[in-house]
Amino acid sequence: MRRPLLILFTLLLVISFIYTHNKSLDNIKDKEKITIEGTVKDKIEKLKYDQYKIGNYLVNDYSKNLDIKTGKIVKINGSIKSLNSMNYEDFDYGKYIKSMGYKGVITSKDYKIIGENIFYINVGKVKNYIRDTFRYLYKDSSDFINSLILGQKDDLSKEEKDMFSRTGTSHVIAISGLHTGILCTMIAVIIRGINRFYKLIIITLFMILYCIIVGFSPSISRAIAFMIIMYLAIFIDRKRDGISTLSLIGTLLIINNPYIIYNTSFQLSFLATLSIIYFYKIINRYLKSSIISVSIAANILTMPVVYYTFKGLPILFILGNIIVIPVISIIMSLSIISIILFEISIFLSKILAYLNKSIIIMVYYLLEKLSAMELAYIEVNNPKLFYVTFYYILIFSYMIYRELRIMKEQENGLQGYYKEY
Questions:
Q1: What global pTM score does this model have?
Q2: Domain boundaries, given as residue ranges, for the chain
Q3: For the domain 32-116, what is the CATH code?
Q4: Among 89, 104, 216, 301, which one is least packed by beta carbons within 10 Å?
């Protein structure tokens, strides 16, 4: 059997869907009084309220008067809303909350500090320092930098989000394999002089810490776990199979939370990675252009999800990615170096930030021009699930056919297992 982990992952997807599809999300009465205790792991400042991640709950403060610091262990009194009642038009917000691994959303106006978690206090200080330093150095461009490095997309304006969406470059402002790959490469270059074992330990610890700082969203967890396993394979000198690695990570995430299959971030992250692994070499064999080949490959399996979920299709996504992809590693590298230099020389840090801002302004200018074009984006008022289903049947039928053909060639000794991947 060529990829048993892929078969296991597929079976778990089906079982999870059957198990969760019509199941009640909770047994809570709407606006029921509740008291919880837990560590404040993060604080997100939204336009109308502050949101705290406390234990397995999200706590919303609409008064914005709580001002609880990350790392504090608190006792919260409030009212919890039933996840079953969180349906807004065609969006099931309750299922989304469940897919993120939270038990519910609490509205609270008071709290009591009962202790503190030193680890998360330091995590909060590091995150706030990075965010505030970027705001000081980059001013108007800081929201983009913070979304790029810290995954804080909420600070971006609606116009900015629409621009990235219309040009098919939204993956840039959602931390994924692209971002973790750049970070791992930077770390590997910095510590290139040490042996492989210590290099593996340092990269693994750094990426786990980074995952804690930016939050354990499905796409981030997938990207970092994928990167760590790939580096582990290099360390133990084993041949790597991306699809099996991806299937293993997906299996573990679904076992941990079956509702994760409804998370759009999870869907797009896994489909994009699978699509690139499977189709990139096939396409690049003819196009001979990495950027174009990656862009096309990633969209083969993600386009139907974008069409159905976001009710639109970015037609000029190839041009958008040609603009963004070549400079993202430069922008991220200069951003990280500028914040490191800030403690050594504010003057040098500002010079680097000025250069980086010039690149960002250029990228924004080109994306805005591309976004304004009539053919850039097609809105779909009433997306059809039938079209999505039919499309995936065709694509996955081709992939299965190709897998069976490769297995037959292997049996005949015509092709090695890892030649294609």
A1: 0.87
A2: 32-116, 125-383
A3: 2.40.50.140
A4: 89
